[in-house]
Amino acid sequence: MTLLQVAGLVVGYGAAPVLHEVDLTVPPATIVTVLGANGAGKTTLLRTLSGLLRPIGGTIRFDGGSLAGVPVERVVRLGLAHVPEGRGVVAELTVEENLRLGGVWQADRRDARLAQDEVYELFPALAARRRHAGHQLSGGERQMLALGRALVARPRLLLLDEPSLGLAPRITAQIMALLRRLCDETGLAVLLVEQNVRSALSVADQGVVLSLGRVVAAADAAQLRDDAGLRHAYLGF
Amino acid sequence: MDRFLFLTVDGLAKGAVYAAFALAVVLIWRAARIVNFAQGAMAVATVYAAYSVTQATGSYWLGFAAALASGLVLGAGIERVVMRFVPHTSPLNSVIVALGLVLLLQAVLGALYGNEFRPVETPFSRTGITVGGVALLSRYDLFVLGAVLLLVVLLALLFTRTSTGLRMRSAAFAPEVSRLLGVNVAGLLTFGWALAAAVGALAGMLVVPTELGLHPNTMDMVFVSSFTAAVVGGLDSPIGAVVGGLAVGLVLSYAAGYLGSDVTPIATLALLLAVLLIRPGGLFAGVRTRAV
Amino acid sequence: MDEDPHGLTLDGVTVQFGGLTALEDVRLTVPPGKVVGVIGPNGAGKTTLFNVICGFVRPTRGELRFGGRTLRPRPHRLAALGIGRTLQGVGLFAGLSVVENVMAGATHTARSGFTSALLGLPRSDRDERRLRDEAMALLTQFGIAEHAQAEPAALPYPVRKKVALARALAARPRLLLLDEPAGGLGAEDIAELAELVVTLPGRDDGGHSVMLVEHHMDFVMSVCDEVAVLDFGRLIAVGPPETVRDDPAVAEAYLGPTLEGRTA
Amino acid sequence: MTTLVRHLMWTAIAAAALLAVTYALPPFRNYQLATAAAYLCATAGLTVLVGLSGQLSLGHGAVMAVGAYAVALSQNRLADAGLTGNGVLVLSLALGVLAALVGGLIVGLAAARLRGPYLAGVTLAVAVALPAVTTVWAGVFHSDQGLSVYLDPPPAGLGYDFPLERWQSWLALAGALLVMLLLANLLRSRFGRSLRAVRDDEAAARLAGIDVARTQVLAFVVSAGCAGLGGGLLAVLTQSVSPGAYSLTLSLFLLMAVVVGGLGRLAGAVWGALLLVVLPDLTHTIVASLTLSPAAAQRLEGNLPLAVFGLTLIVVMIAAPGGVQGVVRRLLP
Amino acid sequence: ATVACSSDDQGGGGKAAVPGVTDTEIVVGTHMPLTGPASAGYSKIAPASKAYFDFVNANGGVNGRKITYKVMDDGYNPANTQQVVRQLVLQDKVFAILNGLGTPTHSGVLDFLKTNRVPDLFVASGSRSWDQPDKYPGTFGFNPDYTVEGKILANYVKSNFAGQKTCFLGQSDDFGTDSLAGVEKVLGKDGVTAKETYVVTNTNVAPQIGAFKTAGCQVVILATVPGFTALALGTAARLSYKPQFVVSNVGGDLPTLAKLLGEAKGLTEGLLGANYLPLMFDANDPWIQLFQKVNKDFGGGAEFDGNVIYGMSVAYLFVQVLQAAGKDLSRESLLAAVEKGGYQGPGLAPLRYAKGDHSGYGGERMVKVSGGVQQFFGPTYETDEADAPVKEYAGTPATPPANGVPTA
Ligand SMILES: Nc1ncnc2c1ncn2[C@@H]1O[C@H](COP(=O)(O)OP(=O)(O)OP(=O)(O)O)[C@@H](O)[C@H]1O
Ligand SMILES: Nc1ncnc2c1ncn2[C@@H]1O[C@H](COP(=O)(O)OP(=O)(O)OP(=O)(O)O)[C@@H](O)[C@H]1O
Ligand SMILES: [Mg+2]
Ligand SMILES: [Mg+2]
């Protein structure tokens, strides 16, 4: 069974494609990490999945249905939340408002409120700054807020673009542990794009390596972590 | 002293109509982050619609409803047909398109109705209620003040209490992120324009009777005063728009009363400078953004 | 900690934002020719510390000294005082080409005035040529000379980060402040950056001391001569990298049990 | 080759070409060319301000008026004192520029603290306050009616039937070329770079050692000086100044011109200035060529050209947001 | 026209070509605010003139020449006026400029028209600037100037409201100042209790009207444009203040005011003013009948009001002048024809054109609104802008020719 199935995906900004024939599957309750050097096309992949970019070719199926032509704002309602690169906190809104925004499409207000409280529990730093505007936060605090906001939507698949960027090691570790827990407890699936290869592989079930827009390796995370040959070949350490 | 009282009351009455229109300016700023220079012309168009309906039916209130309805339609239409396609490469693009719209709307209205003044009715008497020899607010002034008050309360509620308000703001600030969060940005933009144009229509209905008459250019100066009012208040704040509107009304009234009518535009400039040099983001500005 | 007259000294710096204390009584010295790392949990006040040094934020209390003189920084005077800084993120000028971005960094070294610019006098031309040559030299050193005429937005992230660094260096600062220089970079680029940073103090154009904020611990450990740890605005540890890493308070506040357990 | 020599060469080539053009054109077209040249001074200045330093001015018409009134007052006072001639005219124009520079400095100092719509609001208020200034000090400025401007006939050396319009277009073109030369120099220098840096990222610009406030004020001053010269030349062309000629509408039209011409490039300012003159003329001609019934003519006269003008603006901005210059650059390899 | 120029000849006969004149056509131009804030009302004038010219053309034109009237929109912006007048003169080569509207707009082109020797007839404004035969030999006014009018209004006030406090509200340009000058010539400097001005960009006159009320003014003379007349009346009513208003002809046309006031048009009851052209309410006036017919047949049936009457009166006078200039039309003969004077048309007061006098109508007759109708009453007065007394004018108005087209 798969939650997300990507086949033969081709994406480009102009004429020349940036992603070539990418295949990828994410089963439920699984963390799949996408690794690759700068410019490999990781962000492009996530933006295509959430509908911000239109693919040139290939199929994306989520939970059995095709995502082709589904507008961005409806994708999240299907259970797919995307935390974009560069934080995506609405700087002019307060922390509280940003979090409310995460559940704004949900009919169940009570549950949305509950989800917000859970986020404050997860990130006490945010709880202390409910009324602060997004732009007053430190870089890392914004990262926490963006992640927390996505969790408020109670997604079934979470697309994370470099969540550890700007986060202290301790918070990074906490977040990774949290993702693991959510996967195991709630069946959440995660597509995790990371530069921080080590911490990504420490929690992931599977790893996919992108290079110049092509999938060059796909394997169990443990295998990527432990096989020095693979690591050297694709991850440079 | 009587004179001071008179000028104050008169300034407040005139300021209230500026406030009404300033609210429309604030609304579109909050919904789309643009200063809509076409707002005056759009409001005039809706008042012409009201004029036609009132002429045909003889009812002020039917015309009033027509103004609001045509505001909604015009606002939504302009967003759908024109503004949506303006590229966002520079915020100036939409300013220029709005100026183009002003010319177009005024020309169309001029061609349809002729470039002459047309009378507009008021639903209530404009004769001031005289207290101790001083004519104070008229019923119409009270109607205007009441309408402005109601409007500002409703807008404040919309923005602070409802999720639509939150969505509108986030859509204006960060369209892409908002879409990722399930916010229908395009729809909200249309809604914002429609709403702002309807508020503009309401303001137009309140303002035009206090002007020379209905003419394609009636709102030109009103727009300038109201934009000034909105800036004085801090463009983001409905309360600020009202305070700014009343401040502009008072300054114009005092200046005309004590210094001579010639001085009024200079007085407006002085007010604007005095406020902005102390608070560069207007009276009710939000917090200054963290630079780094 | 004894004070070196040529370094930067923070003396009891406190910063409050409304009710929130972002920095509390911070005392720290950055000696010349050294690389000092500042680490700490998110929101500990690291960026604020930089902002104080740059004059974006006025300290509520305390003072700064640089080169033996009291420093009352204003951001645009900083370059002339000999302090350069990169921003968290990239912060390049989108409308300027790469080489112009770097040239912009050295604006204060230009000698020709407004009039000669207006008249297009040779003086102004000479200035321009010198700035351009220096900028190109830096780009060449960083191995990104082929992008000189490109617009920054079109470039890969690591290249943009290098341009930002080059722009800061173009002013020939004696002290360079780097805010998360490794953020968003891949492992190879980080290694390259580390090599670059360690050479900064000894560069032939005068040498720089460096103060940097970074969450990437390997990078911090490998390039810093000294590490300061901030927590809730307070300096909780200062010392050589190894000592600081093994400090249990630091592990508790910053590194966290899991990671610490793994790296140890 | 130094910047100066290169730019001087371009200027000389342009001057020679334009000279030939002025001989080929009939008087009215020469007058239009002269008007475009006067507008060019202002649009070029505005391009520096809006396109390069990123500050919005809705009051550049008023700045032009400052230059125009200074030229008018100076020309008339000097003529009353028996001083006439082209040297005097140059002096008057210089005074016009000076007055505008001072005006620009004052507005610029306020503007350096303000951003976006707040700056727009202040400059808008400046534009609206200008007519009031002329009525409050009616003794000097003669309120709505304005002043007429003394202008000598073309120099006798050019021949007695030398058309005045050609002479006027020489004057205006000389001014415009001077402005273009100086601005081109400036934009190639570090000042041009600082302007753009400030526009793109204020915090980063400050860290790069650029005094943001000073740069912004400087942009205002430079741009005001150009607008002042433009206004002065316009006063010389029309031989009159009045507040109605430098209304808010003019300010808005200048802004439209630079954006539609292509923001941020001097070439865009040239397109803009040409558009300001050609577009109204063109729309009028098109409309005049239609034959309408008297009733329709009643309604449409005046309104139709306005509608066409407005529609053109909208279509251009949507179809070619880079403006005319953007299209030209796309067409040329 | 010298022999040396004969190479420019277009027609035969050895005489120099006259710009804008051929054997079959006379091209005249004007500048008018057809759009923009000042266009209200005024935008109807030029079409009315044009309608009258079309009427004349349909009747065979003047000396076999049809009149083409080029109307250019200047939006009341002096800069545009400069452009469009130059276009008319240099490009379209009009014979003359007729009835260019507005003081600030037209002042700017006086020098240009003079340099190019273009006749500049019947400027549509009451400024005194048009009457400077030495400086501008080709420029002629039409409207009674504001000072003349001020004197006439004040004269009426002086004799009929003796002892009442009189106040003055004027536009803050030379309309207001010239008018006030006229009023003060008659009433004396101290005769005006309170003087206020307004600017067209500020539509709130409550401070001014409030000041009149406080000062206890019983008579208020208005030198206002129609919009502000209506505003003044409306504002006074709002303040429950009921002085006797006496208004300039510029802002006193009842149909225009009634339209502006709408429901409140009752406020015009009792309004005093003055005028010099027939009023539309005189349905029996032969001029009104003529103009209404022309308007119906050639003016697309535009709404008939003072602006239409004005436009047609100007056109009528122009045709008269063309006839007087004769078959051999030139700019010189045209100017000479105007200066010859002695024209009688729809106007009640004398047209003062003479060798040294380029001002237009030299007087007015008082009008009053009663029962929703504006009507003349009393004698016609004449005076000048200097210190001449205001005296009654004995002349009787002319009747239009049978076919509606004047003959030489
Ligand atoms: N908006 C864009 N227009 C054109 N090309 C783009 C655009 N965004 C990205 N690219 C190009 O697409 C390629 C893939 O970029 P992408 O951002 O997906 O990489 P990434 O793997 O996320 O890199 P990083 O680790 O730096 O975030 C790069 O070569 C980049 O230059
Ligand atoms: N202008 C401001 N107004 C209010 N609070 C602020 C402001 N600037 C910073 N803060 C607060 O001060 C604290 C320190 O912020 P700072 O940006 O210095 O953190 P940091 O150590 O750089 O964190 P990170 O590693 O996440 O970037 C944060 O909690 C932040 O929310
Ligand atoms: Mg990426
Ligand atoms: Mg930080």
UniProtKB/TrEMBL annotation, chain A:
Superkingdom of the source species: Bacteria
Coiled-coil ranges per UniProt: none
PROSITE patterns in the record: ABC_TRANSPORTER_1 (PS00211), ABC_TRANSPORTER_2 (PS50893)
Stored Gene3D superfamilies: P-loop containing nucleotide triphosphate hydrolases
Pfam families, per the entry: ABC_tran
Presence of the UniProt keyword Transport in the record: yes
GO terms assigned for molecular function: ATP binding
Keyword field: Amino-acid transport, ATP-binding, Nucleotide-binding, Transport
Keyword Nucleotide-binding: yes
Record SMART domains: AAA
Domain (ABC transporter) ranges: 4-237
Family statement drawn from the similarity comment of this UniProt entry: Belongs to the ABC transporter superfamily.
Name recorded for this polypeptide: ABC transporter ATP-binding protein
Organism: Hamadaea flava
Automatic annotation (TrEMBL), chain B:
Membrane topology category: Multi-pass membrane protein
One family name in Pfam for this protein: BPD_transp_2
Annotated TM spans: 12-29, 36-54, 60-82, 94-114, 142-160, 181-208, 214-232, 239-260, 266-287
Keywords: Amino-acid transport, Cell membrane, Membrane, Transmembrane, Transmembrane helix, Transport
Compartmental location: Cell membrane
InterPro entries per UniProt: ABC_transp_permease, BCAA_transport_permease
Family label: Belongs to the binding-protein-dependent transport system permease family. LivHM subfamily.
Descriptive protein name: Branched-chain amino acid ABC transporter permease
Species annotation: Hamadaea flava
Phylogenetic lineage: Bacteria, Bacillati, Actinomycetota, Actinomycetes, Micromonosporales
Automatic annotation (TrEMBL), chain C:
Pfam families listed in its UniProt record: ABC_tran (PF00005), BCA_ABC_TP_C (PF12399)
Top-level taxon: Bacteria
Alphabetical list of InterPro entries matching this protein: AAA+_ATPase, ABC_AA/LPS_Transport, ABC_transporter-like_ATP-bd, BCA_ABC_TP_C, P-loop_NTPase
Keywords: ATP-binding, Nucleotide-binding, Transport
UniProt GO molecular function: ATP binding
Record PROSITE patterns: ABC_TRANSPORTER_2
Residue intervals of the ABC transporter domain: 8-257
Tagged with keyword Transmembrane: no
Protein name: ABC transporter ATP-binding protein
Automatic annotation (TrEMBL), chain D:
UniProtKB keywords: Cell membrane, Membrane, Transmembrane, Transmembrane helix
UniProt membrane topology term: Multi-pass membrane protein
One Pfam family from the record: BPD_transp_2
Source taxon at top rank: Bacteria
InterPro entries registered for this protein in UniProt: ABC_transp_permease (IPR001851), LivM-like (IPR043428)
Location of the protein in the cell: Cell membrane
Alphabetized CDD domains for the sequence: TM_PBP1_LivM_like
Coiled-coil region(s): none
Membrane spanning residue stretches: 34-52, 59-76, 88-111, 118-140, 167-187, 217-238, 244-263, 270-292, 304-328
Name of the protein: Branched-chain amino acid ABC transporter permease
